[in-house]
Amino acid sequence: MRIITTSFAQFEIHQFLIIVRINEGVDLNKSYLNEIIRILKLNMIHPFGWISDKINSYSVDPSIFNRLIREVSNFMCFCNVVYGDERKDLTTVGRAFCPDNFPMAAFHTLEDAKTWVNHTIHSRPHIPANQAYRSYIQRL
Known about the structure:
Blueprint: E1 2-5, E2 9-13, E3 17-22, E4 27-28, H1 33-43, E5 48-53, E6 59-60, H2 64-71, E7 75-81, H3 87-95, E8 104-107, H4 110-123, H5 129-139
Parallel strand pairs: 3-5, 4-6, 5-7, 7-8
Antiparallel strand pairs: 1-2, 2-3
Helix pairs in contact: 2-5
């Protein structure tokens, strides 16, 4: 495991997953995308899943995941770990900005999220996410 700390988040790098903890009060928008993409491309060499561990309160422009899916070919799934009643709302909002076949989920524990990501990564055919995105766009 490796930890990368930026001005806006902590990225906990594992072989097949990344746990992201956004800092309190951050407005995660497109201005952070280049740095996030650089971190992912330099550190995530295998197919991987993103876990957002929502220990802090922050806002997210959900459209950033659309670009991440397009530009990071080994990004295979996404989930939130939430510690309250917002669980379904987060996944529903995110779903509107991602291809239909892109795996997304929400959990109340980090362990459940890790289990889901590992299962999803190892049981899913490794169609690069950006290829799934192109297929999604063609259907529109």
